[in-house]
Amino acid sequence: MVVLAASIVSKSGKVLLSRQFVDMTRIRIEGLLAAFPKLVGTGKQHTYVETENVRYVYQPIEALYLLLVTNKQSNILEDLETLRLLSKLVTEYSYSLDEEGIGKTAFELIFAFDEVICLGHKENVTVAQVKQYCEMESHEEKLHKLVLQSKINETKDVMKRKASEIDKSKIDKNRSEKGGFMSMGSGRIETSFSELSISSSASGFGSGSGFGGITTDLDAFSTKPKGRQPSAANAPPKGFGMQLGKSQKTNQFLESLKAEGELIVEDLQPKVGQSRVAAAPPTDPITLTAEEKLNVTLKRDGGISNFDVQGTLSLQILNQEDGLIQVQIETGGNPGILFKTHPNMNKELFSNGNILGLKDPNRPFPTGPAGDAAGVGLLKWRMQSADESMVPLSINCWPSVSGNETYVSIEYEASAMFDLRNVVISVPLPALREVPNVRQIDGEWRYDPRNSILEWSILLIDNSNRSGSMEFVVPPADSSVFFPISVRFSATSLYSDLKVVNIIPLRGGATPKFSQRTNLSTENYQVV
Length: 528
What we know:
InterPro entries: AP2_Mu_C_sf, Coatomer_dsu, Longin-like_dom_sf, MHD. By secondary structure, the chain is of the alpha+beta class.
C-alpha cells in the first residue's frame, strides 16, 4: 500500500490541508486535488473514485472531505482503515469541522498524520498513541528555551540600565537649563508669559481643538502676581510648531464625501462619565447563543427559488469550574428541521432526552475569556422549504415607463411570525446625474451615488406596519436594472424555537446561572 497524500478539502474544491508522503511536485498534487470534486458523484454510496493513475479514497465530514490519494495497487481495505483512523484524529484535534477550525489546527493535524503514515505506509498505532507521541517533551527544546529566556532577561536588564542613564542625563540637563534661565530675572518671565498668551490665541488652541486645559492654565498664569515662578522655566518659546485643529480644507473634503453618500465616522473623544454598559461583554458564568442565518432567493414574479435556514447553538463558559455540565434544550417540534450534534457530543443522550453533553463525562467544556463571543459549537440544524408562507418578508417591485420618466413602486409584506429590526431594502438604480425623486415612502431612504443604490430603511416592522410601500421616479430605464434587490434585517425569534431549559451540573450542587441569546439574521436575501 502506498498513500501518496492525505488532504482535507471543502465540498467546493478548496484545499484546506494536504500532506504528501512521497516525492511529488506541487503542480501534480494541486492538479490531483482540483480534479477530485469533479469526479465525486451525488447520491452514490461509494467511498472511492479511480482514474487511470491514482485512486481517491474519501470520507465526508460535515461540509468537508477527508481524502487519501493512493496508487491503484494499494489495498483498499487498509486504505479505508487508515481513513477511519485519520477521521478520528481530525475530530479529536479540531473542535469545529469547518474552514476556520481546520486552519487553526492545521499543524497539529499534519503532525498527527505523520505519526499514522510513514513514507506512504500505515503505522500500527492508535489514537491514544498518536496523541502521546505528539505531546512528548524534548530535552533539547527545553534547554533551547531556557537559553533563549536567559538572553531575553539579560537584554531587559541592559535596556533598564540604558533607560536609567538616559533619564539621569535628561534630569541633569534640565537642571542646568533651569538654573541659567532663572538667573535672567523676573522681567524675562513676564515677557515670556505675554508672548505665550498671544501665541496661544493665534495658533488655534482652544475649545474646538480638544486642548481646552491649556487655555485655562494660561488664563490662570495671567492672574497670578508677578515674580519668579519656577513653572515658567519649562514654558515653550513663542509660536507653536504644530497646529492640531481641523483645517477648513479638511472639513470641506469631508463634507464633499458625505454629499457623495460616503459614511464618515469622526474620531470623537468620549465624555467623562459616559456609560459603556452597552458594549460590555457578557458577565454571566454561562452564556448560550442560538443563531440562525437566512439564505433566501425570491422570484420577481412570485415564488421561491431557494429557502435555506442554517442554525448553530454555541456555549461560552467564563469559569473553569463550571465546565463539567450538560445542557438540556427544548425544540419547537418542527419536522422539517434536521438537527446535528458536534462529533464530540453524546448522540444517544441527545436523541433520548434532548440533552447536550460530551461523550466523556469527565471531560469539561473549554472555557474562554469574556471577550471571546464565538464560544464552542454544540449543535447545528438546517431547514429547507418551498412553502412561500415561511418567508418572513416578501418584496414586490413594479417599474413602469411613462413618457420620459420611469415610475417604480415597491411594497413589502411581512409575515406575522417575526418582528423584524433594522430592515434595509437596497434597490439598484441606473447611473443618475441627480438624486432620484422619492414621492412616497414608509420609513427613511438614502441614495448612494457611488454604487448607484437606493436604500429603504425601516427601523422596526411589527403588527403596526406589516406592510409598506415606496414610490420614486428616475429617467427611463429597463425594468431589469432594478434587480436584484437585496434585503437585510434581524430578529430575536428563531424558526427552530430552540430554548435552553436547564443546565445540569455533573458534580452536583446548585444549577449555575446562565443566559440565552437568540438572533435571526440574513446572510443572502435577494429578489431576482
